């Protein structure tokens, strides 16, 4: 059964910058994970369900408008989970609404923790490395427009691969 996820891709140059940092701090999984904001965490699905899932995602995208994300500073889920992340200071509610819409129909899943949009920069590392990531990226900042989201499929050798893009509706001005 394929394992899929749905996420907002972080654009360049920030995607590579954050992924390179994640690798440099010792998070060896980073090379297999494109820099992103999760909407649906990894789940296994039946291969026959992919067409229905893609139809659902197309409808969700058409019903949700493009928006701006502003990333600034760091946060952590410790002690609950050994994760350091870059925080959103703008686009939080739009991510929450989009994630709620995506996690309906064929993707109606229970999630382990309350949804909190973020960009992971260190995961399952020693405390001193998590502390370092928290400090090193505390002044990180960027802004970008989100005009689509992606369906990712996990490949054992290549990691997470975007397989389809779902354009959001243009923002009304």
Structure overview:
- By secondary structure, the protein is an alpha+beta fold.
- It has one domain: Cyclic Phosphodiesterase, Chain: A.
- Helices cover 26% and strands 36% of the residues.
- The protein has 4 helices and 8 strands; from the N terminus they run βαβαββαβαβββ.
- The strands form 2 sheets. The chain has a 4-stranded antiparallel beta sheet with strand order 2-1-7-8. Strands 5-4-3-6 form a 4-stranded antiparallel beta sheet, with helices on both faces.
Assigned CATH superfamily:
Cyclic phosphodiesterase
Put simply, the count of helices is 4
Strand content: 35-45%
- Average pLDDT score: 96
Amount of helix: 25-40%
- CATH architecture classification name: Alpha-Beta Complex
CATH class wording: Alpha Beta
The major β-sheet equals: 4 strands, antiparallel
Gross geometry: globular
Rg estimate, integer Å = 16 Å
> Strands of the largest sheet, in order across it?
2-1-7-8
Number of strands: 8
Order of helices and strands: EHEHEEHEHEEE
- Per CATH, what is the topology? Cyclic Phosphodiesterase, Chain: A
Oligomer: single chain
In the predicted model, the low-confidence regions spanning at least 5 consecutive residues are: none
- Return the structural class: alpha+beta
